[in-house]
Design brief:
mainly alpha; globular
């Protein structure tokens, strides 16, 4: 919105002439995606900080309090009643900031915003049913997966019918796969299965990570920061050719979207840091995971996503291992056994006696290492 007003209208109308006033000339800076990404980050951060207290107060007035499972520790039980569904603050900040600072004529940008909003709607429905309607389970697992699948199908449909999206797989360490017409091209139908796996996996992985004060928010900030850098270099022809990335100029404005997500996460962390004043709820975690997966698909970074969000993957894998091993041992030995004291992984360490801030800080260190690893692959192709 600001780009179209300040650059396309004011600068081109009054600032492009040699003798135009300096005030109009300086508006030329709005054409640069790096400038707009920086300010999208700042804007989302400020919106989160300025509206945070109001949103928390409103959630408290609505009695939207977190329910805690009985088997969790006393430290966790103390959080019962803390306002949740704070993810509306994150998503609202991202949408407003993106609309202000991005070019609004790219279908990739609208697809990322639409997918994020759709995943947020699924999470909102789950939170609303669970907390407001007092139905302990919220949406059933099948209902959640159905909503996520429909969203993934919609993303695929838009790419298939309305874009020139390349159905190739860009694999780290193999620069030949960066060629959109190379041997890595696969049928679109098979790619749909891959896309569904990415979107459902990423959204649920973030959802599983959201269990300790500041954990999911901190890891999101780090992962989105890395994805912002990767999105930018992939949309710049010079960098893409130099680093052997799949060049896609249509993904340029996604950098602004990613920057807004970084700022919104950092602003929400102000209120979500231990002891948390608010939790993001499923409305936030499903939306963040959906945004990560969608941007990874649009920028051809699907195979880097496990590195970018390594902590999210570890959390999801710990749950899958725990459930699978429990079912296997129950079926084979008659008694279900566990690998971890409790899953997801952060609860295992909590049950082992680690204090919550120690777990969060150590997971943040791991997230930084994963992010650096993802960025290091740029020079290993």
């Amino acid at each position: 919105m600001l780009f179209h007003l300040l650059y396309q209208f004011l600068y081109r109308s009054f600032g492009s002439a040699p003798d135009s006033p300096y005030f109009y000339k300086v508006l030329n800076v709005f054409q640069y995606v790096t400038f707009r990404t920086a300010w999208a980050t700042i804007t989302a951060l400020l919106i989160s900080l300025l509206l945070g207290k109001t949103v928390i107060r409103k959630l408290r007035d609505l009695k939207v309090g977190q329910e805690i499972r009985e088997e969790l520790s006393e430290e966790h039980q103390a959080k019962k009643g803390t306002p949740t569904m704070g993810g509306v603050l994150i998503i609202g900040s991202v949408i407003i900031s993106t609309l202000l600072w991005a070019k609004l004529d790219g279908i990739y940008l609208w697809l990322a915003l639409g997918a994020t909003t759709a995943f947020a709607a699924i999470g909102f429905a789950d939170d609303y049913i669970k907390i407001v309607k007092k139905r302990s389970l919220g949406l059933t697992g099948k209902q959640k997966l159905l909503g996520q699948f429909i969203t993934a199908l919609a993303v695929f449909g838009v790419l298939y019918y309305f874009t020139s999206y390349s159905w190739n797989l860009s694999i780290p360490f193999f620069k030949e796969t960066a060629n959109p017409d190379g041997i890595s091209v696969i049928p679109a139908g098979i790619y749909l299965v891959f896309m569904v796996f990415i979107l459902l996996g990423s959204s649920n992985a973030v959802n599983l990570t959201d269990g300790l004060d500041g954990l999911a928010t901190s890891v999101t900030f780090i992962a989105m920061s890395a994805l912002t850098a990767l999105t930018y270099v992939g949309s710049d022809k010079r960098w893409a050719e130099y680093l052997d990335l799949t060049f896609n100029p249509s993904s340029g404005e996604l950098t602004v979207f990613c920057g807004a997500m970084v700022g919104a996460s950092l602003g929400f962390l102000w209120f979500n840091s231990p002891p948390a004043e608010v939790f993001m709820g499923d409305v936030g975690s499903l939306a963040i995971g959906g945004a990560l997966g969608t941007v990874a698909i649009l920028t051809k970074q699907e195979f880097l996503l496990p590195f970018i969000g390594g902590v999210f993957i570890l959390e999801a894998v710990s749950v899958m291992l725990q459930v699978s091993y429990f079912k296997f041992t129950k079926r084979s030995a008659g008694v279900g056994k566990r690998i971890f004291l409790q899953a997801p992984l952060h609860h295992h360490f909590q049950m082992s006696g680690w204090k919550e801030p120690k777990i969060v800080f150590r997971f943040v260190i791991a997230a930084i290492l994963f992010a650096l690893l993802s960025l290091s692959t740029l020079k290993l192709r």
